[in-house]
Write a structure and sequence with these properties.
151 residues, alpha+beta, seven-stranded antiparallel sheet, 4 helices, globular, DUF2691 domain-containing protein, Uncharacterised_YncE
Length: 151
């Protein structure tokens, strides 16, 4: 069973999250920014791009369409009525209301865990279209991640 997608992105100062997530219905979710696991810098002003902990879908969409540089990042997407908390294990993810958990480490390594198989396949196809490296499905059999954290 597919539980996510992993790939490598180029280290660039652009709208990387928009490129990664444009195949997802971003406005339908609330986005939970795990502040302690977030270092995403504005390209021109040098401040942090994410200033809030929780974004509605439209706010998040506007935010990720700007230019920025990702060092590391952990984001969780929920339906608006979901119960938000910082997820640390795959079992917590499975048992939570979280629909999508995005992890970016060392500027280029991306793991996205999703509950909806259709969304996982869309993310995979989008990663291939964007010519990202080492695109592969994460399954229950090849999932080597022990913690759902980037730090």
């Amino acid at each position: 069973m597919i539980i996510g997608v992993s790939f490598k992105i180029p280290q660039a100062t652009d709208n990387t999250l928009w490129k990664i997530l444009k195949c997802v219905e971003i406005p339908k979710y609330k986005w939970y920014n795990i502040e302690s696991q977030n270092e995403v810098w504005e390209s021109f002003q040098g401040g942090m791009i994410f200033k809030n902990v929780i974004y509605n879908g439209n706010e998040f969409l506007r935010c990720i369409q700007s230019n920025y540089y990702i060092i590391f990042l952990k984001l969780q997407a929920y339906f608006p009525d979901g119960n938000f908390f910082d997820i640390h294990t795959y079992q917590e993810f499975q048992n939570s209301d979280c629909q999508l958990l995005l992890l970016i480490a060392d500027c280029e390594f991306v793991d996205i865990y999703v509950k909806d198989q259709t969304v996982a396949k869309s993310i995979y196809k989008n990663a291939v279209l964007n010519q990202y490296g080492e695109v592969e499905y994460i399954t229950e059999f090849n999932n080597s991640r022990t913690k759902m954290d980037v730090l």
